[in-house]
Every structure is written in C-alpha cells, then in structure tokens.
Amino acid sequence: MTDRNLFSDAITQAHLFSGLGEEEVSRIFGLGRRSVYPSGATIFREGDPAVMCCLVLAGRLKLTKLHEEGKEIIVRYVPAGELAAAAALFAEKKYPVTAQVVDQAEIIGWDHETMKDILLTHPRLAVNMMRVVIERLEELQSRHLELHAERVEQRIARALLRIMEQSGRKTEEGILIDFRLSRRELADYTGTTLYTVSRTLSSWEKQGWIASGRERIVIIDPHALMLFAEKD
C-alpha cells in the first residue's frame, strides 16, 4: 500500500490530520512502525503497560473490556483513519481495553517519546488529537446514558446506526455494515443477550428495516431505525 493510497483513503477522511499537508503526514508516518495483522490478531491487551498508540490505516479493530464477572464487553469498533490507545499512552498508564483485529488490518504505531516529539513539532496535530479524544469521551458518555436510560431495542437501533455511520457501504440492497458482525457481538456491544438481539433483528427484518445473514447486516431503512431509536 503506497502513501498515495493512504492519503486517498483513511487519511483524507481522518479528523486527526485535518489541516496538515501530505509532506507533514509523510514525515509523521516515517517516524512510526507500520505492520499488517491477520484477522483475530491481538494488538494490545487490557492491563498491559501502554507502550504504543496506533492508527488504523486499513481494516478495523475491536476494543473489548472484561467485566468483573469475566464477561467480555465490546467498547467500540475502530475503523480506518482513527487512533487507538492515545490517551493511555500519554498518561503512561495501562491499556484499559484489548484491541483485536476484526479483518486483516494495517496499523502504524508510535511509542510515547516519538509521539511526544511529533506533537511538539506539529501543534496542529496536537489540537486535532485533543478534539478526537473529546469526541471519544462524548461517545462513551452517550453510550453510558443509553445503557441506563433506554430500552434495549432502542440501544440496538442506535448501535446499528452508529456502526453504519462509521462502516456503512451503499449497495443495491441497502447500506451494508462492511465487516463481519455476529449477533453475539452485537449483543456484547449493546449490553444485552443473544436472544434479545435475535428477536429484535427478526422483527425488524419482517418490517423491512434490515436484512441479515450470518455475520452480515444490511440497513434497508435507516430512517425507520432512527425514528425508533428516538421514540419516547
């Protein structure tokens, strides 16, 4: 994958590099370590010292956290163009989540000292990164409110709309969530059971809002899902 490919895909769409030129981004990339990981690979584990933050160039990461009872919770999906573990790296703390590759992914990573030097040299990047961290906090606050204040079916609708916005691809059938997403994973992401997710998706299929198969979901009527999610 060439730098030109990267600029035309993940980087030009990433808020992280807003206002930076291609030469600046190339220099930043040159200071990182680029690697390709297969599906299912673990990039870092919850509880390990945070030694690297990483940018997803292609593919997708799944961030998970272990509940105190040992249940795995999906915190969020990280698509191409987004950072993972930046806050933990700068705080010099442990990784709060585990990052796994959903499909084959290309990652570029920077250690603490390298990233600190990059931000001192490129203050615009530091401002962008602060904005990104704030957006992530707001997203986590919204999900926390959803878990405690909304019916489970509304949570599922919001989750599908959020994932669709990040990873949707238009097809003749509708908007395809462009990675393998099982009903079990959707249940873990929304804090509910596999039975509830299956029952809810089956109901929405009958109404023509979605189509689903094995690890595949197509949003046919996103407007209907949005109205349902916002319903009092």
Question: What would you say this structure looks like, in words?
Answer:
The protein has 232 residues and is an alpha+beta fold. It folds into two domains: 3-143, Jelly Rolls, CATH 2.60.120.10; 150-230, Winged helix-like DNA-binding domain superfamily/Winged helix DNA-binding domain (Arc Repressor Mutant, subunit A, Orthogonal Bundle), CATH 1.10.10. It contains nine helices and ten strands. The strands form two sheets. Strands 1, 2, 3, 4, 5 and 6 form a six-stranded antiparallel sheet that branches. A four-stranded antiparallel sheet has the order 7-8-10-9. Strand 3 and strand 4 form a beta hairpin. Helix 6 packs across helix 7 (183-190), helix 6 (152-167) crosses helix 9 (222-230) and helix 7 packs across helix 8 (194-206). The chain is globular. It starts with a helix and ends with a helix.
The Rg value, from CA coordinates, equals 18 Å
Whole-number count of domains: 2
Q: Count the helices. How many?
A: 9
Round the mean pLDDT to the nearest integer and report it. 87
Cα shape: globular
What would a concise description of this structure say?
The protein has 232 residues and is α+β, with helices and mostly antiparallel strands.
Structural key phrases:
10 strands, 232 residues, globular, four-stranded antiparallel sheet, six-stranded antiparallel sheet, Arc Repressor Mutant, subunit A, 2 domains, alpha+beta, Jelly Rolls
